[in-house]
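User: We ran a pulldown and think these components assemble together. Before we commit to crystallization trials, I'd like a predicted model of the whole complex to look at. Sequences follow.
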Amino acid sequence: MRNLIKLIPGCALIVAVAAVLGLTVNAVRPNGLPLIRKPLSHTRAFANPTTHKPEALFTTLKDAKDLYDRHAALFIDARTAEDYQAEHISDAVSLYFEDFDKLYGSVMQGIPKDRQIVTYCSDPECQEATKLADALTARGYTKVMILLEGLPGWKNAGYPTAPGKGR
Amino acid sequence: MENRTQRLVLFCRLALAVVFIYAAIGKITHPGEFAEAVAAFKLLPIVLVNVFAIILPWIELASGLALLHRVSARHGALLIAGLNLIFMIAAASALARGLDIRCGCFTLSHAHTKLGWSLIARDAAFLALCLPILLHHTRAK
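Assistant: Here's a predicted model for the assembly, 308 residues in total across the polymer chains.
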């Protein structure tokens, strides 16, 4: 045991070197993360459903359900294809954000740029839906909103979901 | 007998080094994806998630590399044992809270393994592989 305790300074040195390397690489790499992660709900505003801004904003469950009931929006699931197949918002399509460039052409083919779109992912702190919404906005889609509560919020409200491959 | 023990220790060192270097490279090359996996555990304050996701893979990488050299092998084994204990506690806590999330263990291959008790058993096996390295070298001192 005493021999193991003697290892601790060496381990601390390895951790310190690793931490410095990690932070340095993160600072210089193009896709580095911000050091402080903000709660997602603090990062942008909720959309007024009657006006549209160039930035993708959040939508409330109530407004999203209203769009859903009127078949006025395309719901896009930003989670993995496996998660989508397990359960998704009924009639939603799958576009896993990490594979955006690969899937964009096939999923979004024929969808007009002014189509109302609602993206969602797995919970209020997952960021795939926000990143997907921003990527769609960058491709010219003008009416993109993010369902902050994600699939769990939708399910807990008793709104319809479905398993399977979908469309 | 001593030869057999040495071969066992060498096997454990190499096996753990390969696994942890591979796991680290996957996380280092997909930082955003790994940060999402960390956040989904809901264990850390949200402001600490990114720093943890940035540093942890480098600790895995350094520990894996440390295992490859005889002088630093015990340090690597002790760090990997500690990491595995943390992973097991985090996974058990997430399962106990009913979270249906991805493991985030190997982000490299898009193998989005769901968190489950089998993954805790796998971490326990990795932990067991650390013991011969730590005990053998401790006795040899």
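Chain A touches chain B through 37 residues (CB under 8 Å). That may be worth checking against your pulldown data before setting up trials.

User: Thanks, that helps.
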